[in-house]
Design goal:
By secondary structure, this protein is an alpha/beta fold. The chain is 40% helix and 19% strand. The chain has one domain: Leucine Aminopeptidase, subunit E, domain 1, CATH 3.40.220.
Length: 172
C-alpha cells in the first residue's frame, strides 16, 4: 500500500512526479488551483492544453509539468456540486481513479492531489475527502504510486484529511 499523507501548502512547489490540477472542462486555465498551476508552469502549459480539446467531467488528461518541479500535470475535471443527486460522487471518484491510471501510464511513483471540486465548485469538503481517500485506497495498488499527498489549501481542510487518515490508520 502506498503512503498516504495530508499536507498544507502550495501544490505548485512540490517535488513529486505528478500533481493534479483541479481543472475546468476547457483545460485553458481558471481560478484557484487551476490558475496557480497555469501561472507557475508558464505559457507552454496553455499551448499544450489547447491541443487536448478539453476534458469531460470525471476524466483527466496529462501534460508535462513545464516550469514546475513536477514532471507531469494531470488535469482532472471534477463535478460542480448540485445537491448530490446528479452523480457528483461517482464523477468525483472517477477523477481520482483516472489520475491513478495516468500515473501508471506515465510511471509516476508520487502524486499530489488538491481537494478537487471543493472550491468554487462547492462540493462539501468532508464528503469530497472521504471519496478521495476511499477511491485512492481502492485503486492505488495497481498504479505503481508509492506516495500520495493530499495538498490542503487551509487548516480546516487539512484537519479533515488528517482526521480521516488517522481513523483509517486505527482501523488497520
Amino acid at each position: 500500500m502506498a503512503e498516504l499523507l495530508a499536507t498544507e501548502g502550495d501544490i505548485t512547489r512540490l517535488t513529486v512526479d505528478a500533481i493534479v490540477n483541479a481543472a475546468n472542462t476547457s483545460l485553458l486555465g481558471g481560478g484557484g488551483v487551476d490558475g496557480a498551476i497555469h501561472r507557475a508552469a508558464g505559457p507552454e502549459l496553455l499551448a499544450a492544453c489547447e491541443q487536448l480539446d478539453g476534458c469531460a467531467t470525471g476524466d483527466a488528461k496529462a501534460t508535462p509539468g513545464f516550469r514546475l518541479p513536477a514532471r507531469w500535470i494531470f488535469h482532472a475535471v471534477g463535478p460542480v456540486w448540485r445537491g448530490g443527486k446528479h452523480n457528483e460522487d461517482e464523477l468525483l471518484a472517477s477523477c481520482y481513479r483516472r489520475c491513478l491510471e495516468l500515473a501508471r501510464e506515465h510511471r509516476a511513483r508520487s502524486i499530489a492531489f488538491p481537494a478537487i471540486s471543493t472550491g468554487i465548485y462547492g462540493f462539501p469538503m468532508r464528503r469530497a475527502a472521504e471519496i478521495a481517500l476511499r477511491t485512492v485506497k481502492e485503486h492505488v495498488d495497481g498504479s505503481g504510486v508509492e506516495r500520495v499527498e493530499f495538498v490542503c489549501y487551509n487548516e480546516e481542510t487539512l484537519a479533515i484529511y488528517e482526521q480521516l487518515l488517522s481513523a483509517e490508520a486505527q482501523r488497520r
